[in-house]
Amino acid sequence: MSLYGLIIGLSVSLGIYLFEKNNTLVPKKLINIFIIGLLISLLTGARLYHVIDQWSYYSQNFLQIFNTRGGGLGIYGALIAGFIFIFLFSKIYKINFLLITNNLALVLPLCQSIGRFGNFVNGEISIWWLESLLCFVLFLFLHYFPRLATAKYLIGYGLIRLITEYFRHDTWVIGDFKIANFISIFFIFIGTILLHSKTTLQHHTL
Q1: Residues 6 or more apart from 47 whose CB is under 8 A from it?
Q2: pTM reported for the whole predicted model
Q3: Which of 97, 126, 157, 171 is most buried, judging by how many CB atoms fall within 10 Å of its CB?
């Protein structure tokens, strides 16, 4: 296993441990299904985001799509796929979607902060430390102010990416517009709606 893979694996393992430790929502008989499904969704979404971004290369080197050891995982792809999986899981098993994501939102920034060290050892992002630091600050903020964690995470990470994208020149661009900026604005928009919605306010135990 590469050092990159080891760091990503460490961040994911820590996230699973913290989620399971504080989990009171997903029944024990379903926890393995949830975690395995979530991990598959995260990895698939992260890789798909990168592959679409770099399609000019992967269309000519198709088998390299499955070579994740050298990097090539997009966090926004992972987050979008993860949210979709959790939504479907919550509908199938009749568990409140926002309560699950509130639990996950409390640990996600810490996992992302650690995961950026993987970008450092891979030499992928020159300002990896900035996003790592800001994600850790977001983790501390959510730790002390956990109410409405999903909404605060979406707003917080959306803002973090808007800041860090300004310094990056290696991300997905269509024309002159960075896709990550579009997703960041969308996250902030959804987070703001959740922050003020009656539905969210009725489920603010976390």
Answers
A1: 65, 68, 72, 73, 74, 77
A2: 0.89
A3: 157
